[in-house]
Write a structure and sequence with these properties.
mainly beta; Thrombin, subunit H; 6 strands
């Protein structure tokens, strides 16, 4: 995880609730687990997932990582899309707003 990116606000665009996708699923080399996160919100440049700061996956993620992610429309359904996705920011939640979490910004590549 790149701590240098946590102090700068990278979420300046307006956000909407997700309509196209419900969640994403991925793993990364070095992890023996598949992670699935609900998509928190979407902007014109990407989407965001909310990850607890004490989650094991946070020590394996950094800005610029490109992961194969599966996208789901609804919880419990089959994936509808699979795409390479770049982590574009990792922002620590502020006290009172997402405290104890990181907002991980994602951008689908090639779309």
């Amino acid at each position: 995880m790149n701590e240098n990116n946590t102090d700068i606000e990278r979420r300046v665009e307006s956000r909407t609730l997700p309509k196209q996708y419900h969640s994403v699923q991925f793993t990364k080399q070095g992890l023996n687990i598949i992670y699935q996160f609900k998509i928190w919100n979407i902007s014109t440049k990407g989407m965001c997932i909310l990850v607890r700061e004490d989650s094991h996956v946070m020590s394996h993620l950094k800005v610029g990582d490109i992961l194969d992610m599966k996208y789901y429309l609804e919880e419990g359904k089959r994936p509808v899309d699979q795409s390479k996705t770049e982590i574009i920011h990792i922002t620590k939640g502020k006290p009172g707003q997402f405290e104890g979490h990181y907002l991980v910004g994602l951008s689908k590549l090639g779309t």
